[in-house]
Amino acid sequence: MSLAGLEAARTSDQVFAEFYTSKLSGTSIERLEARIGKAIHVLGREGVEEDPEPMLEAAAGGTAVLLVVGDPMAATTHIDLRLRAERIGIHTRVFHNASILTAALTELGLSVYKSGRVTTLQWPHGDYFPTSPYEHIMANVEAGLHSLVLLDIHSDEDRYMTANEGCRLLLRYEDMLGNGVTGPDSLACVVAGVGSPDCKRRAGRLGELAEEDFGPALHSIIVPGKLHFMEARALVVLAGADPHLVGEGV
Amino acid sequence: MSLAGLEAARTSDQVFAEFYTSKLSGTSIERLEARIGKAIHVLGREGVEEDPEPMLEAAAGGTAVLLVVGDPMAATTHIDLRLRAERIGIHTRVFHNASILTAALTELGLSVYKSGRVTTLQWPHGDYFPTSPYEHIMANVEAGLHSLVLLDIHSDEDRYMTANEGCRLLLRYEDMLGNGVTGPDSLACVVAGVGSPDCKRRAGRLGELAEEDFGPALHSIIVPGKLHFMEARALVVLAGADPHLVGEGV
Predict the structure, then answer these.
(1) Residue A105 and residue A51 share a domain
(2) Does a structural domain hold residue A233?
């Protein structure tokens, strides 16, 4: 949380929070309440998307803060809520925060200026197994860009896709579509617990990463594009990459 | 600044800072020093890139913190410094922060998941006027993706490119290359002072934005890709777009 965000929460009349678009880690609601100095009303998906009236009423009659994990407004649900508020004359302000979209890459020393379109892997259900994640990664690889691959979250069931499951899905896509983008020998990276003191960073062959243990979620996968020599070096020094695999010092 | 970052600075033996990769705003070095409770050694580009020994020595003999504006590790100079430290056995940790790369888009209600490659406009000098920014925007537009256009910074001369100058450069590219991407009637957005209470957001025709006043730097330009109806609505509600221009409610 930023200092400006904390100050806003401290001085607001009511504080709400939702943790269904991401996962609270490294703190607890009780510790947040102690820090902010007031009770936090925790909302589920329904409380934000379908029945936000208590929040809007609090904001109409004073000030209200909604706490979220990560960069606010990255989820459509937050944009929708903001537009609802503005349309009925409630002035809104966003206190930006670190986002996995940049932090996952920068933790690895990969350039965010070479980040291509982000994609998300979802658990297949029934016949639903869209090829778009593979296509996004392929388009990025062709343009020399890095692909951040986010992993599915079912927070209501406390289920978070691990990097292992994600790597196996990517291998399955490669089997199906076969363009040499996410095969067992493809270079890939995993970051786990970004922002925590025990953040894990690994770079290696996708087939090997599928078997490694990265500790508790949240995890993210990155499929690097063309590497600048500084990026290759960073993957060796920061993420334990085999120098030969990243073309560094060979 | 994040609470975790503040705590790290408070408990570290020495605190350094650099403001040449971005611009400090909304606070001052004196206020930061009061908050952290110790003196801050402000470094220029040379002190980070060519002569970082004082920082590395402080870190080798205890703990040292380097404060930067925005998301750390987005600049190559920070990655290089981190690698130097790790290679001589100094353990490093990054306290991530809000980044213009996500905040500029989310302020406008544009989806960060549809963000294409970021590009930067530089002041032309002599014959140097690379076409790559226009090509990056064109590739993004073709893929339906949004283009964040960052603007040149010469912090040593206290010069920051305004959105007006940036829009005029984009118009000039369009004149030269003529692919209908950044013409005077193209939809574009400007954000100024992201993160400050008086953040400005505007969406309109590029030729018109080139003439508007956006207040003090830093500014950013966004050339939107294909708009989802929620994004179109957000540009109307949050950034004053003409509903007809964004295809909303027509």
Answers:
(1) no
(2) yes
pLDDT for residue B245: 96
Work out how many domains chain B is built from and give that number: 2
Res A249: pLDDT: 62
Contact A72 B230 (CB under 8 A): no
In a domain, B83, yes or no: yes
User: What pLDDT shows up at residue A250?
Assistant: 47
Mean pLDDT for the stretch of residues A99-104: 94
**Mean pLDDT across B109-127:** 94
Same domain, B78 and B112: no
Q: Is there a single domain that holds both residue B117 and residue B212?
A: yes
- Print burial letters for A29-51: b (CB count within 10 Å at least 16), e (below 16): eeebeeebeeebbebeeebbeee
- The reply to whether A70 and A108 lie within a common domain is no
Handedness of CA A169, A172, A177, A181 (dihedral sign): positive
Average pLDDT over every residue of B131-151: 97
Angle between helix A229-239 and helix B76-87 axes, rounded to 10 deg: 40
Which of A87, A112, A134 is the last residue in one of the domains? A87
The per-residue pLDDT for B250 is: 47
CA-based angle B115:B168:B142, to the nearest 5? 35
Which 15-44 residues of chain B touch chain A by CB within 8 A? 35
Question: Are both B117 and B205 inside the same structural domain?
Answer: yes
Tens-digit pLDDT profile for residues A164-219: 999 999 999 999 999 999 999 999 999 999 988 889 999 999 999 999 999 998 99
At B249 the pLDDT is 62
Give the burial string for A141-178 (b: 16+ CB within 10 Å, else e).
bebebbbbbbbebebeeeebbbbbbbbbbbbebbeeee
- Domain-located, residue B249: no
Q: What is the CATH number of the domain that holds A13?
A: 3.40.1010.10
Q: Which of residues 44-83 of A touch B (CB under 8 A)?
A: 71-74, 76, 79-80, 82-83
- The predicted model gives B169-189 an average pLDDT of 96
What tokens were used for B15?
């605190």
Residue ending a domain, among B62, B87, B112, is B87
Question: With an 8 Å Cβ cutoff, are B87 and A237 in contact?
Answer: yes
Same structural domain for residues A109 and A210? yes
| Complex prediction ipTM | 0.93
Nearest residue of chain B to residue A75 (CA atoms): B111
- The answer to whether residues B51 and B26 belong to one domain is yes
How far apart, in Å, are the Cα atoms of A26 and each of A15, A32, A71, B243?
Answer: 20, 11, 16, 43
pLDDT at residue B205 is higher than 70 = yes
Give the structural domain span for A214: 100-239
* Residues A234, B79: C-beta atoms closer than 8 Å: yes
- CATH number for position B152: 3.30.950.10
* B93 within some domain: no
Instruction: Supply the mean pLDDT for chain A.
Output: 94
